[in-house]
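Hi U.,

Before I forget, here's the chain from the pilot set. I'm dumping it here mostly so it's searchable later in email.
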Amino acid sequence: MNISLLLEMAAEAAGDRVGLVCDGRRWTYGELLAAARGAVELIESSGASHVALLDESSEAAVIALFGAALAGVPYCPLNYRLADEDLAGLLGRIAPALIVGDVSRVERLSSGNGQVTMERGDFVAAAQEASVQPDREYNGGEGVAVQLFTSGTTAAPKAAILRHSNLLGYILGSVEFAAADESDAALVVVPPYHIAGISALMSSIYANRRIVMLPSFTPEGWLELVEAEKVTNAFVVPTMLTRIIAAMEEGASANVSSLRAIAYGGGKMPLEVIQKALQRFEHTGFTNAYGLTETSSTVALLGPDDHRAALASDDPKVRARLTSLGQALPTVEIEIRDEDGNVLGPGEAGEIYVRGDQVSGEYKEKSALTADGWFPTRDAGYMDEDGYIFLSGRADDVIVRGGENMSPGEIEDVLLTHNAIADACACAIPSVEWGEAVGVALVLREGHLEPAEDELRELVRARLRSSRVPEKIAFVPELPYNEMGKLLRRQVKTILAD
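Structure:
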């Protein structure tokens, strides 16, 4: 099967229903399918091997995604925030491509590679105007649907491959067809080049839910759209929710009574933020969705009932679940393994492995799957006896001090209990004696003075052990995060090296 089936089924079941709202323009499912079929004509005439998007979210993302699927070529949205040198390298790796978006930049960086470029508006208009044979048959191939480049924080970006079968495995296993009422609306604000943005489009289309796009996030703009479009569902990253709560505390207001569900993911959610959100949005169900590009999005969920139960509980074990990833979806398997690949028991820390139909674990360069189909995520964590998964960071972020492995997350969690600390990042710094030692970068709460370093060290020593005590402490105005809310530890290591 092909992911184009999702849009075809939506158009057949509810062709006149509004499926997308962007910049005030409204598209029905029938209009979106017609434009996607028109895009096939543009793709085929261009001779492209890939369809790329170098732009913010818009109707072009939907048309290009499904147009590429119908044409049987991979859809490859690119990070428009990349530096020229990095983007030029990626453009060379997908040539020849039909690229929608920043034409002048592509021509400057990738001339001579056979790229065909179109501005967003021109692409959308041409797709609508294309002459489509009424009886033509489209490519029903089951090959590569989406190609996404990894962030490349430690090496050159890898080209993650998601096949139609992977994406459909996720959607068909987690979304009920046509389950949404005509009044339901999902606010999509994550970038189009992230798997969360792609899965949000496919999930809503298959459910027949109206998609409301916010191309550029501001907390005020987000609140305004929730009220104006009576949004019922939304997905945010932790930094977005943090800014939304801060804006509301500073007086920003909107009628958010329509919001039934908010999902979040992409990075670690501060405990204080989710506690405030549960109080601010008292009638909204919150879901922590954990997944990766290589797993076609979500593989574990902490659902609304778990959130409310944890918030209300006096049991430390239950309350701690507010910081967990929740439990594995019924359609996937999750295990925690040690460095030798042995499965670990409850409470034992190791690397998170995932297996299921939606799990690709494949790159254009090679496959990362084990012989029996498990994908090593490189995320470190543990699972409790009830199957709740707790993330402690990337396996590559583990601090190895004198042969002892230490999780940055446990050190950060302790430091965040200090009333003067708003944000914290722990990472390895070089040590002559121990090989690596603990360094921390801290952000102060507004109106607070820097606490004494000895006070902070004693806090860590009392809660954990002396080996976890930071050797170096630096106070910074803010910590570096990417647009999906992931903490950029490599940049923090540079700060601590100064």
